[in-house]
Sequence to fold (276 residues):
Amino acid sequence: MRRDFYQVSGREVDLFRQAYAQRVPVMLTGPTGCGKTRLVEYMGGVLNRPVVTISCHDDLTSSDLVGRYTVSGGDVVWHDGPLTRAVKEGAICYMDEVVEARHDSLAVLHSLTDHRRTLFLDRAGAVVEAPDAFMLVCSYNPAYRSSLKELKPSFRQRFVTVAMTYLPAELEVQVLVSESGVDRAAAQRLVKCASSIRNADDVLHFEPPSTRVLVTAAKLVAAGASELEAAEVSILAPLSNDGAITEGLRELAAASLLGANTTAPDRRVIAGGVKS
Ligand SMILES: Nc1ncnc2c1ncn2[C@@H]1O[C@H](COP(=O)(O)OP(=O)(O)OP(=O)(O)O)[C@@H](O)[C@H]1O
Ligand SMILES: [Mg+2]
Fold:
């Protein structure tokens, strides 16, 4: 996979650079598959820093982040966790889906994300000052956020927040071509297909197809699949378990892929599909 290619669409790269230069942590928000992880990987290359990724979840403890003592061969040995390693290395530490982590686990980040830039390893009795090269980046998808999992304002306000979304059509076509090698005309049809579904999203209330699924569809097309089949298995099938909705979307997708006049998505197709 090409981690060095990132299609810029707004101010995100400049803001990331400026935040890095001023040692301010960055919070990326946006729907699944819109390019958050790719941006962090790309910026790792641009800034010449390794990226240490931590996937956050309910059971993640502060010890999982900073480290713990373990017994090995009769000795008690301290092992740095990934956060401590990232700080010591001066890496970009990327905490993915940070909203999934419990508040008490995130508390360890407070001293690291303000002017102190210091990690307190209470159990080891050690204090680690972050080198200038260290940067913390977190991300979450606002669509998955529940009131139970709100991030505290005291946490959120420590970050520069960069809100990401899907690329404009022409740039998304460019991503598909570059990531899959598919021809431009096919990429344009796939993007048009996704756009028509995204435009119908306000009546459907599910997370619309992402750039990720479009890249997958484009890869299948590049490998010889028909556009309709590629769209069916990559774009439509993951959207909804409701067969009736999928049926309506299939008509919408077919209209885009077969070149029918779909400049304005026909919401009656969806409504008809839901009812049938
Ligand atoms: N701006 C972009 N430039 C290049 N590729 C992109 C871009 N946006 C999305 N992609 C493509 O879409 C894929 C998914 O993007 P990425 O993994 O960064 O999504 P994400 O926002 O991190 O999603 P999730 O929240 O599910 O982790 C990438 O592997 C890449 O192929
Ligand atoms: Mg990601």
Summary: The pocket of magnesium ion (ligand 2) is lined by residues 36-37, 96 (CB under 6 Å). Residues 60 and 156 are 19 Å apart (CA to CA). The chain is about 45% helix and 15% strand. The mean pLDDT is 89.
